[in-house]
Design goal:
The complex is a heterodimer. By secondary structure, chain A is an alpha/beta fold. Chain A is built from nine helices and 17 strands. In chain A, strands 9-8-7-10-6-1-4-5-11 form a nine-stranded mixed sheet, sandwiched between helices. Chain A has a five-stranded parallel sheet with strand order 14-13-15-16-17. In chain A, helix 3 crosses helix 4 and helix 5 packs parallel to helix 9. In chain B, a hairpin with a 2-residue loop joins strand 7 and strand 8. Chain B is an alpha/beta fold. Classes of the chains: A alpha/beta, B alpha/beta.
């Protein structure tokens, strides 16, 4: 019987949600293929979430060492190479996250297993895995096959699958010793820092006026600030606006910014990259204004307007004044 | 501080309706404009900022056709000292092949840092940088938003999810993948690009490298492209701006937001 590995991602003593999403998909695949689901937990000693993981896997391989409390790709890849050599899992699922994006490509070269990244679905055709990916920032989808191999590595996009409903398993715990020749890492963790603190807390706002690359120029921030003030809402933005230094980081909505839950989210000139959309799944109503009618934001918005956003902004201001 | 920066030329696709070509595994490229990959633009800027502060030189490198030299000339105009184009000929590239080919050329160069973008704007793989690090046996870090070198190490700021950053120290030489927003890439004038034409741009053909057939075989294959599956999507509000504004205000009120 074959095996499917899911690499548990955790940070600051908590399992990250993507782990349960990978376990969901892996469970589904294991049923279809009659494979064993093996969660691999590489962590410091006595992390509190081991029992939680056991409920979603047939087995949990636990590699514990104080050097492994904080993720370190250099150490992770050595341990995983050894485990992959021993078990030869058919599939290894890794999060397409900051950690996974560093780990998976290295592991692919180290193990010789082909890698498909940022996958939103995993299929089987004639016994071969195929993945669905989004390209060109979600404008198109692609179906990708991998070079024939004993095993394959796949990184999974956050939110592609629902989380596993915990409880179906009581996975056996298998302790695996850290390799005796585990090298010293050339990278040393110093600290976690909060990059998003600031004078405005967009997570508490009932109304967000959110701006994206489509506002065109830094000068237009003032126009949108004015609208937000008129509406009594808070100003938020997508990543490109912060990258260009038009607004500070604490205004940013999305995976690397804040998750927001306003009653109404007005998106002006935001294309709707998945990293942004992931931050607004809790919003009540999303109204998107964008002149590109194919912008991915319209796939997730409740209401859409295809027009020059400034015309709409002016009309809104006029309406309020009258 | 000698730095190598890996760059890629990509089609500009924002606000462009992409069409799938008849073979179904690529987009129609004839009508598209091309630019330097956004992440790579930040990477080359970062390399030049480091050079301005600590000295040394900057080499820009790409795997691509003669058309792709355009982005190398742009890097030279920004302040890179030399450029290398690896010509893959007719080989169909994937992340593995690009990284393998880059490694074969870079292994003979002298450097303290290699910078790549976190990912490319076209395929969104985000794999070449770390694969390259592994081929070369280098220390590595992904999604870097700050670099402060001190002697033979550097303090890094790394972007994690949910507004958390990690601060770490890394030994040099190292490979770092650079996130957008790390700096403000400088403007490049047509004049600047013309002036940079005198700088060295070396072309290496892939058959000049000692790569085995296995090194040159892709590990991923795009079988087909398709448009995103139909969803319910947004209910579109039609009409002139004044009518649209009225409707937006009505919806806001309905959802319990009074203005």
């Amino acid at each position: 019987m074959g095996e499917i590995f899911v690499i548990v991602e955790h940070r600051k003593g908590e399992v990250r949600e993507i782990t349960f999403q990978m376990l969901y998909k892996a469970n589904e695949l294991c049923q279809k293929l009659s494979h064993d689901l093996i969660a691999v937990l590489i962590a410091g000693k006595d992390e509190p979430f081991l029992d939680h993981i056991r409920e979603s896997a047939d087995k949990v391989i636990v590699v514990e060492d104080e050097r492994l409390r904080v993720f370190n790709a250099e150490l992770h890849k050595e341990i995983l190479r050894e485990l992959i050599e021993k078990h030869q899992p058919f599939l290894t699922l890794i999060a397409h996250s900051a950690y996974g994006m560093e780990l998976a490509p290295c592991l692919s070269i180290k193990s010789g297993y082909p890698l498909a990244t940022d996958c939103v679905d995993i299929l089987f055709e004639d016994g071969h895995p195929k993945v669905i990916r989004q390209i060109y920032s979600g404008k198109l989808f692609s179906k990708v096959s991998l070079k024939e191999s004993e095993g394959y590595l796949i990184t999974v996009r956050e939110g592609a699958f629902p989380p596993d409903k915990v409880g179906a398993h009581k996975g056996e715990v298998i302790k695996h010793e850290v390799p005796v020749d585990l090298p010293d890492s050339r990278k040393q963790f110093v600290a976690f820092e909060d990059a998003g603190a600031g004078e405005v807390d967009i997570t508490q706002a009932e109304l967000l006026i959110s701006v994206g690359r489509g506002i065109g120029e830094e000068e237009n921030i003032a126009v949108m600030k004015e609208l937000a003030a008129l509406f009594g809402g808070a100003l938020s933005c997508s990543r490109p606006v912060v990258d260009k230094n038009w607004l500070p980081k604490y205004h940013q909505v999305g995976t690397s910014g804040k998750t927001v839950k306003p009653k109404v989210y007005l998106a002006f000139g935001i294309s709707g990259a998945f990293q942004h959309v992931a931050g607004i799944t809790g919003a009540g109503t999303v109204i998107a204004i964008n002149k590109d009618k194919r912008a991915p934001i319209f796939r997730v918005a409740d209401y859409g307007v295809t027009d020059d956003l400034f015309k709409i902004v002016d009309a809104l201001k006029e309406r309020l004044a009258s | 501080m000698n730095t190598i920066v890996c760059v890629k030329r990509v089609p500009l696709t924002q606000e462009v309706e992409l069409e799938i070509d008849p073979r179904n595994n690529d987009i129609r490229r004839d009508m598209l404009a091309y630019v330097i990959n956004e992440w790579d633009n930040y990477a080359i800027e970062e390399a030049i900022l480091l050079k301005e502060k600590f000295g040394g030189d900057v080499t820009a490198i790409t795997v691509g056709s003669e058309d792709d030299e355009e982005v190398l000339r742009r890097c030279l105009a920004m302040g890179a000292d030399k450029a290398i184009r690896i010509d893959p000929g007719e080989i169909r590239l994937d992340a593995f092949l690009i990284s393998r080919t880059l490694a074969e050329v870079i292994k003979d160069l002298e450097y303290d840092l290699i910078l790549t973008g976190v990912q490319s704007d076209d395929t969104n793989n985000g794999a070449v940088g770390m694969m390259l690090a592994e081929h070369l046996g280098l220390a590595h870090s992904a999604i870097v938003t700050g670099i402060e070198p001190q002697g033979n190490e550097a303090t890094l700021r790394i972007e994690l999810e949910g507004g958390t950053d990690e601060v770490s120290k890394i030994m040099l030489p190292a490979l770092l993948s650079i996130q957008t927003g790390i700096n403000e890439p400088r403007y490049v004038s047509i004049m600047g690009i013309r002036k940079a034409a005198r700088k060295e741009l070396r072309v290496i053909k892939v058959d000049e490298l000692s790569l085995s057939p296995d090194d040159l075989s892709a590990r991923t294959f795009v079988e087909e492209l398709f448009l995103p599956p139909e969803t319910e999507g947004a209910k579109m509000i039609e009409g002139d701006p004044s009518k649209v504004a009225e409707e937006i205000l009505r919806i806001m009120k309905e959802k319990g937001v009074s203005v």
